[in-house]
Amino acid sequence: MSELFDAVDALLASRAALPPPAERKRLRAAHGLTIDEVATALRVRRATVSGWESGKTEPRPPERDAYARLLDKLAELYPATQADTATPAAAPDVAVPATFTAAPAPAEARSLSTGQASEAAVMTATETPQTPAPAAPAAATRPARTARTSSTSRRPGAKKAAPSGTRAGGADPRFENGPLAVVDVDDEGKVLAYCTGGLVLDVPAKSIPALVDWTLREARLGQPKLSGPGKDADPLIVLTEAALERYGLPVTLTEEEKHAGRIPEGHKVIKQLARADWKLTKRGFGPWARIYRPATGSERACVQLCIPSWNALDTRHWGTAGQLPPAELARVLGVYASRVMTPRGSTAVTGLELMTALHPATRASEPDADGKRHSEHNPGSLGKDAIDPMNWPPCEVPDGHPVLKDLPRFHVRGPAEKLFEEAYDWARPMTDAECTLRHLVGIDINMAFAAGANGLTVGLGEATHVKAPAFDPKLPGSWLVDLSHVDLSRVKVGKEWVELDGSLLPSPFTPKGERPEGPAWYATPTVAYAAELGYEVRPVEAWVRFDNGRYLDGWYNRLRDAYLATMADLGVDADLSPEDFLAAMDGYKARDPELGIVVSAVKATVKGGLGKLRERPRGEGWRPGEPWRALSRPTWRPDIRAAVISRTRINLHRKVVKHAAFTGQYPIAILSDCVVYAAAGPSPLDFLPYQEGKPLPGGFKLGINPGMVKHEGTQTVLWGEEVRDKFNAPELNLARSIKDGTVTDADNGE
C-alpha cells in the first residue's frame, strides 16, 4: 500500500496549486529574495524561475511541489492586499479566432475564476516573443503543460506579442500561431493542434483534405520568408499516431512501403485528396508529404506533413523527438523552425533548402516601360536552372555520372582524374615518448564544416577549362597540380620557416594523410595552402569559375546563430573562460533534453546540407551513365561541397602545424573534426598552450563558437595500445572511439 500512497502523493505534487505569475513575483520580492536565490534553492536555472514568474512556463515535478511550498509560506507572511489584486482599467477587447484554445496549469485553473482562467490562458499562449536568430531563450519557448480552456476573447488591455516563429520587427498576422502544429487526438476524441509557445487549437477537420483546408484558411500557421525575393514557408502539420488513426492513415509503414518511401497510390486518403483537387509532389504520400494546388499569381496553397511514426524524424539526427508528447514535440520543432527554418524534410533536405531560401533563384525586375515587373536572375544565387550534366568537368563528378559514360565499365579513376576532397581519416603509431604519457585526449571542432563555409568564395555558374593556368587563390575551381614536393619537415608558419617532424604529421593534401605521388586534382583552398606553406605550385590545367561569390555566408550565419542561441539556453555561453567552458559542457544536454535535440538537429543540418550538394542516385532504376533526379537541381553542386571540405581540412591542418611548431606535440589520430593527442593529464588544458587565459594565436582555442574546440573524450594510453593490439592494427584510428572507449570492430572507415 505504501507504494500506492507514494504514487498518489506524486500525483498530487504534480498538480500542486500555484498562484498567478504576477503573484509569484510579488511574493518573492516581498521577502527580498532574488531570482538567483530561488533558482539556487530549487536547483534550477535562473531563466527557469524567470519563466515561471512571467507565465511563459510552468514548473514540473519535483520542482513544482517545492516551489508551491515556498510560495505558500511566503503568502502566509505577506498576504495580498486589495491594491495587489486591483484590476487595471478596462480596454477594448481584441478578438481572436474561435478555434483558439489554451490554458494555465491545471492547479492554476482551479485557483482562478472562469474569467481569470481565460485571461491567463490567452497570455500564456500569445505573449511569447521570439525572433529567428538568435531566438528567444529556452524558457520563453517551453510550452506549459496545461489544461485547455476555450477562449474567444482576450483580456481587456492585453497587448499581443510576437508569436513563436515570426521575424524581427513584429508579428505577421498571417502566421500569428507560429510555423507549425502537432495534431493529436485527446482521450475524449477531440482533435487538437499543439502550436509553439503552448498554444493549442481545436481542429474541426474530419479528413486529410479538410485538415489541409483548415490549415490554410483558419490555422494561421506558416513562417515569413527569410530573404526579400524569397517565398514564405508553408505551414507544417505533424501527425501523431492517434491523428493518423483518426484520419485513416496507417500508424506505421509496411516493409514494402518503407522501401518505396510512400503509401500506395490507390490508398483511400490519396483518393480523397484527388477528389478535392489536391496534388502530391513526385515523392508521393510519405514521411514528408507535400500537398498543394498549383499557385495562382503570388498565392501559394501548400501544406507540408511530417509523420514521425513513419520515420520522418531520423533518430540519428532528431534523437527521441518522435516519441515526445505533442506539446514537447511542438516546442522542439518550433525552436528549430524559428532559429533555422521550418523543416522541409530531413535535416539534409532542410540544410539545402535553407541555402535557396536565403538566396532565391529569381527576383522581381525594375518596372519596364509599361510599369510591369518581370522575373529575373537574382545576383549571388545559383539560378533557377541546373548545370547541364554534359557541361560538368569530368574531374568534379562522382562515378556513374553521364559525362563519364564513355569510360570503360570497370575503370577506376585515380587522383589525376578525380577530385577527391574529403575529411580526414588518419592515424599513426604512438612514439616511445607518447607511450610514457598516461592519457589520450580528444578535442572536437565545433561546427567544423560550417566554419569551413564561412567567408568561402565558391563558384556560382559553370566552369571554364584553362590549360597551364597561373594559380589564383581567389579563384574557385579545381586544379590539376603536383604537390608531392611539399615537405612538412620544413614549412612556413606565418612568415617564418620552421623545422618539424614531418613523419608525425598527416599530409594536408589527402584524406588518409598520405603524401601525394604526382599530379592530382585539388580544390582552390588546398592548393592555396601549399603556397602558404612556402612551396611553389604550377597547375597543369584547371576548371575555374569566374562567376563566383560568398554564397554560403548567410547560410553559415543563420546556422551559427541557431547553434549559439541554443547552446546559450543550455548554459554554454560564448564568453566563458576555458575552465568554465569545460565545466559548462559537462552534461549540457541533460539540462534540457529537448533543446539538446535541437542542437543535434542543427549540426546535422550543416553536414547533411553540404552532403546534398553531391547527392548520389537513390534507386529509381538508375543505371551508370544515366542522369538521376538530383542532377536537375541548381543546388547539385559537388564543386561547392569539395571546396567546403577542402577548407575545413586545411583549417584543421593549419592549427595542427601551429600547435606542433609551438609545443612540439603532434596528433596521433584525426577523424573528420576530432583530433587526439597524448597528454600527461585527462583535460585539454593539459596539452593546449594557454598563457594567462589566452590560447596560442592561430592554434586550438576552447570555446563554443564554430571553429573553436571542445573536449570530445579521454581514454588512457594503455587503452589505446590494447585496442590496437586486439585488432592487430597499429594505425587503428583511435579518434573514432575516444568519446566512450567502445571499439566494436576493426577500423573500416565507415
Question: What characterizes the major β-sheet?
Answer: 9 strands, mixed
For the terminal residues, how far apart are their CA atoms? 53 Å
Tell me the overall shape.
Answer: globular
The chain-level mean pLDDT equals 86
Counted by DSSP, the helix tally is: 23
- Poorly predicted spans: 86-170, 746-750
- Helix-strand makeup class: alpha+beta
**In percent terms, what proportion of residues is strand?**
5-15%
Q: What is the strand arrangement across the widest sheet?
A: 2-1-5-4-3-6-9-8-7
Query: What is the percent of helical residues?
Result: 25-40%
| Multimerization status | single chain
Number of strands: 24
Radius of gyration from the alpha-carbon trace, in angstroms: 29 Å
Describe the fold and architecture.
With 750 residues, the chain is an alpha+beta fold. The protein is 32% helix and 14% strand. It is built from 23 helices and 24 strands. The strands form six sheets. It has a nine-stranded mixed β-sheet with strand order 2-1-5-4-3-6-9-8-7. A five-stranded antiparallel β-sheet has the order 12-22-23-13-24. A four-stranded antiparallel β-sheet has the order 15-20-16-19. A hairpin with a 5-residue loop joins strand 3 and strand 4. Helix 3 crosses helix 4 and helix 14 crosses helix 21. The two termini are 53 Å apart. The C terminus is likely disordered.
Write the layout of secondary structure elements.
Elements: H1 2-13, H2 21-30, H3 35-42, H4 46-54, H5 63-77, E1 100-102, H6 106-111, H7 114-126, H8 138-141, E2 149-150, E3 180-185, E4 191-195, E5 200-202, H9 208-217, E6 236-239, H10 241-246, H11 255-260, H12 268-275, E7 279-280, E8 290-296, E9 299-306, H13 315-318, H14 326-339, H15 347-358, E10 362-364, E11 375-377, E12 425-427, H16 432-435, E13 439-445, H17 448-453, E14 458-459, E15 464-467, E16 477-482, E17 490-493, E18 496-499, E19 519-523, H18 524-532, E20 541-544, E21 548-549, H19 553-569, H20 578-585, H21 593-612, H22 638-663, E22 669-671, E23 674-679, E24 709-716, H23 717-726
Parallel strand pairs: 3-6, 6-9
Antiparallel strand pairs: 1-2, 1-5, 3-4, 4-5, 7-8, 8-9, 10-11, 12-22, 13-23, 13-24, 14-21, 15-20, 16-19, 16-20, 17-18, 22-23
